[in-house]
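Example (one chain per record):
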Amino acid sequence: MDISIVVPAYNEDESLPELCAWIERVCVAQRYSYEIIIIDDGSSDTTWETIAALSQKNNAVKGIRFRRNYGKSPALNEGFTAAQGAVVITMDADLQDSPDEIPALYNMICKEGYDMVSGWKKVRHDPLSKTLPSKLFNGVARRMTGIPLHDFNCGLKAYRMQVVKSIELFGEMHRYIPALAKWSGFKKIGEKVVQHQARKYGTSKFGGWDRGVKGFLDLLTLMFIGKFGKKPMHLFGALGSLFFLAGGGLAMWLIIEKLLAIANGTKYRDVTEQTLFYLGLTAAVIGIQLFLAGFLGELIARSSTDRNRYLIEERIGLPVL
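Predicted structure:
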């Protein structure tokens, strides 16, 4: 199969028929073999019934229905697991991403050799409450990940199949797929200016500043996972050693000071009456706790295998895994 198009959807029953018809026109015109995998993320409207009706008309339309709302990252993760295309393209269900971009994205992967191409909504049809936090977030993300992309959070992206099969999404990590791909060894990451359309149906399901704050917190989580996810002891062990040595050093200083005072016959304060003693004791206890956190982190990292298990109520056109 040439292309798998993965579409997370939450209460988007109005836009899905138009989106699927548009994708079909583009893929038929380009003679692509394709599938459209729509993940219903616990919608409360008739999104699932709409997906079922679309699948009856076109067997390229397939669906996964979550029992409840999990979020965009779990939806994409399930879509990536089910995808069979040589190129996997993600887009939002609200018609703000244009399916007319599909051929160019496909060519950048297949002909220009990119592992991943991220869309850049250079001209956006969104209110300032969304665009301003987005610019701030993208600037911080560029600096911290070292990936020179203008729009990390653009829903329109294309991947070589090996990329989506090599990364794991959870929480809200969909914003950082470029970083996850880079850390998985896929170095050729490109960017393409894409058309951004005004929302045609309904209202945005995401906030502005609230989304930016969550994105920043997720970025800190990602940086920790990227550097210490497999070896948490490298961080906690180093910090624990530092605190423990500091506490031990203070204790040794107080003992030496007492011995020198005894040797010189001078007056001295008892060790337990000095502030430094309690600072040293506190540092030693913190050091031990950090060591224990590192050991527990190592155990969790080695035994955690069921992080991405979601309750799926129904599937259309896809095998039960």
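Caption: Strands lie at 3-9, 34-40, 61-66, 87-90, 116-120, 157-160, 189-193, 312-316.
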